[in-house]
């Protein structure tokens, strides 16, 4: 009987010592990172580490937190993360701030873009874009001076609009004027040089009434402009 009680007491003492050892081990763990408190902050809520400044965030993040800021085009992070993702990233030159996507170059609907910036406009029934920039009125011009010299983007150069192209512009001028006002430096001009003519004269297109007329190249009194267009991209 004595041996039975002695054995029971020994087991009890061992159990108490084990519990104290486990409890002491738990109390010694004061690493927030080891306990899962790894976030600097929690925009969507969370629990702060009881003995530190880091957080354990809620698992659900706002849908705006969608960038890891680690792919090509990223150079850093902006703000605090939620579950390792950010709303914004620092982007390299030539990349859009919305996810550091490379800025778009090319045709998209009625707009032509150069690295994310609109440089040309058209309507649905036009097969060419017109430049946003008004060229002139310092003529006379040559194709190389202006029409071909204006770049819609890098090596995508336009050329001078002739009377047939200007006639198409005339038919779409109301819609084009709206686009030019929104994205460019104003509406279409009244008179454009077509780059054509005959000896000693230049041909001009009148955008107000869809007509052409000829003026001596030595006549400096007539103000006119050149319209650059882009036909392939």
Could you walk me through the main structural features you see in this protein, from its secondary elements to its overall organization?
This protein is an alpha+beta fold. It has two domains: about 35-100, no CATH class; about 105-230. Helix content is about 20%, strand content about 25%. The protein is built from four helices and 15 strands. The protein has helices spanning about 1-30, 145, 165-170, 175-185; strands at about 45-50, 55, 75-80, 90, 105-110, 110-115, 115-120, 130, 150-155, 155, 160, 190-195, 200-205, 210-215, 230. The strands form five sheets. It has a six-stranded antiparallel beta sheet with strand order 5-6-7-8-15-11. A three-stranded antiparallel beta sheet has the order 12-13-14, covered by helices on one side. The protein has a two-stranded antiparallel ribbon with strand order 1-2. A hairpin with a 6-residue loop joins strand 1 and strand 2 (about 55). The chain is rod-shaped, with a radius of gyration of 36 Å. The N and C termini lie far apart (about 100 Å).
The level of helicity is 10-25%
Largest sheet: 6 strands, antiparallel
Average pLDDT figure: 77
Strands in their spatial order, largest beta sheet = 5-6-7-8-15-11
Number of strands: 15
N-to-C series of helices and strands: HEEEEEEEEHEEEHHEEEE
Cα-atom radius of gyration:
36 Å
Flag low-confidence runs.
4-8, 10-27
Look at the helices and sheets and give the structural class: alpha+beta
Overall number of structural domains: 2
What is the 3D shape? rod-shaped
Approximate strand percentage: 15-25%
Q: What gap, in angstroms, lies between the N and C termini?
A: 101 Å
The DSSP helix count reads: 4
Oligomer: single chain
